[in-house]
Amino acid sequence: MRKRDGMLVVWPAYFEKDFSRAQGRRIPNNLAATNVTLKILQMAAESSGFEFESEPDKQYPRGFSDKNGYLVIANPENHKKKRVLLMLAKGVRRAVAQRESARLAAEKKKGKKKRRK
Question: Per CATH, is 7-111 categorized as 3.30.56.30?
Fold first, then answer.
């Protein structure tokens, strides 16, 4: 991996509620979300106002089973990585909540049956 000055690498596993700290979660469990994907992480970075580029076919070193990619986020203000992760966590939670509400609405719509008159 090449060195990137002023850039931070952010993996979706950092925000995964089902992971322990040893498995790679970097934020507190009460701020984490379930099933965080690269797309959700991109939405969170956009809503937080970060400039980023994605690397979709990369494999998280601690999770050798799947390739889920990562984001490279520009950090011109030189914030600490923990602070950037906490700023992203708010956007991740918002994106996951929108995804869940859309899923529940689709299930509710699918569950309704038309009555015959």
Answer: yes
